[in-house]
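User: structure tokens for this one?
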Amino acid sequence: MPRPRNTSIRDFPGKRWLNVGLRAIHVAGLILLGAGLLNATAEMGLAITLTVTSGLAMFLIDTWANPAHLRELAGFGVLLKLLLVGLMAWQPAMAMTFFWLLVLLSTVLSHAPAGFRHKQLF
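Assistant:
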């Protein structure tokens, strides 16, 4: 079911390519983060910086473009993902569990049908 056309959705030139670039950086950061959690030689500071800053930038662009994004399941899911990142820092012993929950939540929210992702929660 397609998302209803919202006349308050904003756009700017290059937004799509900016989001593509941010997603590429975000995935690279996420891979580094996972490698670091698995005790590989990844630079954890760089992984956290890439993941959080690119994710936050995408979230801000999406919310600016469509203020209703925060009321949708996809937008609210970003807040849940930020909570999981915070829990990873707060409870390092549980970081791998939170990491895999983050990966599962991210995958479901990014690949679910639009009618599910854009469902209004409130």
